[in-house]
């Protein structure tokens, strides 16, 4: 067989994708063992029936052929309106490209922002696909560790130290996996580094509707940042449309024009009936988005209440997103060891912090994605399990 491209074979050079606990949990379930899954960011309440109705109507109405590659004009207009309203930054359809989900937007954004062989910076802990995405576009994936003692707010001096020779920086706030929302001070420091070193900033904002404390600030709205920022958005988290695969990139007009050309030569756009459903969903407004986010805000409160009643597991401040990050270092186990033993002994599946980088070693990520009662019960059992390890 001919040699495969290193861009492909080096996506996960260790051979591990960090999801072994999740895979093992699914195998247990397939074998008939009940498992409480607190692993992936998948809503327990599925896509709203009204959105599915709009999708069905569009498909049956004939919107099943090739759609406009950059996205249908109405959807791009609605995304532009939403972004301008929420950030105060002038945004038109020329600033918007519709993509097949946020992951495709991340990949395309980095093809635009990072020439092959240049450093592509990202913050550790990170969403599991980040380093593979950066390797896949030919960048040198370069993690910058945040620290638990800082609440996982990245230190600006650490970013500055890696900025020489870099082309791009990827950030994510509200953050997966930590639940941290970056402060204005953090974002302003990041913006200054980007301007000083002429970096593109790729801002993954798919959790922008899930903010429980503080405020979501898009760095595109900071002074002189609109022309060097590519914002990744998605319908997956804000509207529980994970399987529909519809997202967007918002950025400078010239960059978006080139990204449209890339889409013509790769994805060739997003199905029209999916875009019609996304347009319908966005037009339901902020109240609908708050309804989708409400279960996670409730469960975050449940987690805070349960965890303050014990002292073996520490909650990292969870200001946004659908996860809590728990510090389990007092047990003496790594995140991987704890997650595997928790799965074996309690049949509760969580993600080891090490799945998201070395900065989260000794932590676990818990998705808030089952009903309130079962979620509270699982957390209490998790804490009791941790207590037995500390005896």
Give a summary of the structure in a few sentences.
Helix content is 41%, strand content 15%.
What does this entry look like structurally?
With about 400 residues, the chain is α/β, with parallel strands linked by helices. It has two domains: about 5-45 and about 285-385, Aspartate Aminotransferase, domain 1 (Alpha-Beta Complex), CATH 3.90.1150; about 65-285, Type I PLP-dependent aspartate aminotransferase-like (Major domain) (Aspartate Aminotransferase, domain 2), CATH 3.40.640.10. Helices cover about 40% and strands about 15% of the residues. The chain is built from 14 helices and twelve strands. The strands form two sheets. It has a seven-stranded mixed sheet, sandwiched between helices. Strands 1-11-12-10-9 form a five-stranded mixed sheet, with helices on both faces. Helix 3 (about 50-60) runs antiparallel to helix 11 (about 270-280), helix 4 (about 75-85) packs parallel to helix 11 (about 270-280) and helix 12 (about 285-305) runs parallel beside helix 14. The radius of gyration is 21 Å and the shape is globular. The N and C termini lie far apart (about 55 Å).
Helix-strand topology string: HHEHHEHEHEHEHEEHEHHHEEHEEH
How many domains? The number is: 2
What is the number of E strands?
Answer: 12
Estimate the global geometry from the Cα principal axes: globular
Number of helices: 14
Find the structural class using helix and strand composition.
alpha/beta
In CATH, the topology of the largest domain is named: Aspartate Aminotransferase, domain 2
Separation of the first and last Cα atoms: 56 Å
What amount of the residues lies in strands? 5-15%
Q: Specify Rg, calculated over alpha carbons.
A: 21 Å
The CATH H-level superfamily of the largest domain is: Type I PLP-dependent aspartate aminotransferase-like (Major domain)
Biggest sheet: strands side by side, in what order?
A: 2-8-7-6-5-3-4
Overall CATH class of the largest domain: Alpha Beta
Main sheet summary: 7 strands, mixed
Return the average pLDDT rounded to an integer. 96
**Level-2 CATH architecture of the largest domain:** 3-Layer(aba) Sandwich
State the helicity in percent bands.
Answer: 40-55%
